[in-house]
Design goal:
The chain has 455 residues and is α+β, with helices and mostly antiparallel strands. The chain is 37% helix and 19% strand. The strands form three sheets. The chain has a six-stranded antiparallel barrel with strand order 1-2-6-3-5-4. A five-stranded antiparallel β-sheet has the order 10-9-11-12-13, covered by helices on one side. The longest helix is centred in the C-terminal third of the chain and has 116 residues. The N terminus is likely disordered.
């Protein structure tokens, strides 16, 4: 939220409206049986505002409808709708209660402690009859026929604002209530007689008829979204603090105060632009500075921050009233042209850096491929030589074995030849001895007449 005077007024005046209503509601409750400490009431702590800039805290005491039939005694024309789903925008809720919108003087969006996916609405009506009819019509009714969430409506006993945290420039001051604020959409005064006033969860106020045309879930002034995104974590160390988002590839890494994985991602990929998730500012690692919403000044050539509230104003302008101060179209066109040229230059520089980076990657890939091919060839040749050497060693071993076997066989051959000769000699000698015996027997076997046996 900007620390401008108009913004301060838009924050404080609706709060003052509720303070006035609280005074009327709780003026006689200190001595009554339906005080905030009574068991007939329930206390709900709440807060509103952008926590990064300023936050208002309080407690609302509501009539309890547990086990109670009918309308509570001592009720006032103020009630609270609890547990509205975050996906329902301001326009959705205005459409939901459109039949009673002309009876509503003020609506204030707040967040309840412990209800991260829901918010509550404080509503003040123009009459008690309208309040009762709203309660009877919407209490227990589904917000959507396709969902199970139901509208829980309770009458307000008391609303107490207990604290404020933020800069002194945005803190409410009594002097700020003297001037009636204007609706940022239609620029008309926020007069309750002209229509209901809705204060968003970031403490900006609009006419209900104006905000009902805004279909987005963010605030039309500061773009603060009531439906907060899921909590991001570092892709490497899973931390949720000091996170940076690469605007080139979407990598989420932690900053240098944690693990430094965002900086490491830049060194590995050369993606030099990184968005800080907490402040939504873009850091340029190459230029070593922030480039979020920066333009180059024509006077001194330095980078200056573009005003986030008004692109038409001079340096330091924080509202659109500068359009009435005589700014020429030529100056406006010059600033727009400077912004376009600056971002085109940033884009061209980033594209050139990415071109050089990917060319370097391709060269490294080619070199790596050639090196892998060379290593693969060397490895294949080495494996082939190793297999051939193993085969050669096996063949040499077999040859040695065969040589030894052949040598043994030759030795056995000589031995067997010698044995065969010896056997032949013995056979010859035995045969000769046999022949001699036969001859001797033949001589002895002759007849006495001297004739041989044959005759």
């Amino acid at each position: 939220m900007s620390p401008s005077s108009s913004t301060v007024v838009s924050v404080t005046t609706p709060k003052d409206h509720f303070r006035e209503s609280e005074a009327m509601i709780t003026g006689d409750y200190c001595d009554s049986s339906t005080s905030s400490s009574s068991p007939m009431t329930q206390a709900f702590p709440f807060s509103s505002g952008n926590p990064r800039i300023e936050e208002t805290r309080g407690v609302m005491h509501l009539f309890s409808n547990d086990g109670v039939s009918g309308l509570p005694v001592g009720r006032k024309p103020s009630l609270s709708v609890l547990g509205v789903p975050n996906h329902m925008t301001y326009a959705d809720f205005c459409q939901f209660c459109a039949s009673f919108l002309h009876h509503i003087l003020e609506m204030r969006i707040v967040r309840n402690d412990g209800m991260e996916e829901q918010y509550s609405i404080l509503i003040r009506f123009d009459s008690q009859d309208s309040t009762d009819r709203f309660y009877q019509h919407f209490n227990g009714r589904q917000f959507n026929s396709l969902e199970e969430d139901v509208c829980r409506v309770l009458f307000i006993v008391d609303v107490q604002f207990t604290g404020y945290s933020g800069s002194l420039e945005t803190q409410p001051s009594p002097a700020s209530t003297t001037e009636q604020p204007s609706c940022p959409v239609c620029l008309e005064k926020l007069d309750q007689d002209m229509g209901g006033i809705l204060t968003t969860i970031c403490n900006h106020s609009f006419h209900c008829s104006c905000i009902s045309k805004w279909e987005d879930s963010s605030c039309p002034v500061c773009r603060y979204c009531q439906q907060q995104p899921e909590k991001s974590i570092c892709f490497v160390c899973q931390t949720s603090d000091n996170l940076w988002l690469c605007v080139i590839c979407g990598f989420v890494g932690c900053g240098s105060y944690k693990g430094g994985h965002a900086t490491r991602h830049w060194k590995e990929t050369q993606h030099c632009y990184s968005l800080e998730l907490e402040t939504q500012r873009v850091w340029d690692y190459v230029g070593d500075n922030y480039v979020h919403r920066l333009i180059q000044s024509k006077t001194d050539g330095k980078l200056v921050e573009l005003n986030s509230h008004c692109v038409h104003g001079n340096d330091g302008c924080a509202s659109c009233v500068c359009l009435k101060s005589g700014v020429s179209d030529a100056l406006l066109n010059g600033k727009v042209e400077a912004i376009v040229n600056e971002y085109n230059e940033l884009l061209a520089t980033q594209l050139e850096n990415q071109k050089l980076y990917f060319e370097t990657l391709l060269q490294e890939v080619n070199e790596e491929t050639e090196r892998e091919i060379s290593e693969a060839v060397k490895k294949a040749v080495a494996q082939k030589l190793q297999k051939l050497q193993a085969k050669l060693d096996r063949c040499l071993k077999e040859k040695k074995f065969l040589d030894e076997l052949n040598e043994n066989l030759l030795k056995n051959q000589d031995i067997w030849k010698t044995k065969i000769l010896e056997i032949e000699e013995r056979e010859k000698k035995a045969l000769k001895v046999k022949d001699n015996k036969i001859h001797d027997l033949e001589e002895q076997a002759t007849f006495p007449c001297g004739c041989s046996l044959e005759t």
